[in-house]
TrEMBL record:
PANTHER family: BLR2425 PROTEIN, FLAVIN REDUCTASE LIKE DOMAIN-CONTAINING PROTEIN
Top EC category: oxidoreductase
Lineage of the organism: Bacteria, Pseudomonadati, Pseudomonadota, Alphaproteobacteria, Rhodobacterales
Domain Flavin reductase like per the UniProt entry, residue ranges: 18-173
Protein's UniProt name: Flavin reductase family protein
Keyword Oxidoreductase on entry: yes
């Protein structure tokens, strides 16, 4: 099968987001200029550089009460900061519930019953029990082709690691089993890992 997206795919469901999978989920927490807080998952998310450490996520779509965007991006525009919380398998239901199109005044920390903690380098809350949290300072918002598509880039200014996930000096993802997004309504969980040496490595 071959199709050009502009002409449609002819399938019952769009296959595009099932092709690039699994994808890590960035559970983005933000605070608006008025002090209101938001927590929402984004599966167009990844790390993009080591030095300095940088991450990205893409916001697609819009809410009627946010003038052409979503709560997360609107808050980031106001304050220049956000926190990426890593999603573990145990938090799958709370993460999923926080993805709803809730009104801007809804605090998802309260809605889904997730404990918050203060960030150290930015004025924002983080998910207290997350395996890891990346505090970020906004560096760029890049408009993308299409309606309400934006790429958000940030520099990581602080890193929280849950102590039980550190094993012999390494961050062990099998300790918390990260959740990943696949296509449609499908998700995956990492339960085991293996290692490969690059050519030329000892």
């Amino acid at each position: 099968m071959f199709y050009e997206p502009r002409n449609g795919h002819g399938l019952p469901h769009n296959p595009f987001n099932a092709i690039v999978a699994p994808r890590p989920i960035g559970w983005i927490s933000t605070r608006g200029a008025d002090g209101s807080e938001n927590l929402a998952p984004y599966s167009f998310f990844n790390a993009v550089a080591y030095t300095p450490p940088q991450v990205m996520f893409a916001s697609t779509g819009a809410k009627e009460d946010r003038d052409g965007t979503k709560d997360s991006l609107s808050n980031i525009r106001e304050t220049g900061a956000f926190c990426v919380n890593i999603v573990e398998f145990a938090a799958r239901d709370a993460m999923n519930r926080s993805s709803g199109p809730w009104p801007r005044e809804v605090d998802e920390f309260v809605l889904v019953g997730i404990e918050r903690a203060a960030c150290s380098t930015i004025a924002c809350s983080r998910v207290a029990g997350a395996p890891a949290a990346l505090e970020c300072r906004l560096t760029q918002i890049v408009p993308l082709e299409g309606r309400a598509n934006f790429l958000v880039l940030g520099e990581v200014t602080g890193v929280h690691l849950r102590d039980d996930c550190l094993v012999e000096g390494r961050f062990d993802i099998t300790r918390f089993r990260p959740l990943a997004r696949c296509g449609y309504r499908d998700y995956a969980v990492v339960r085991e890992v293996f290692s490969l040496s690059r050519p030329g490595e000892g």
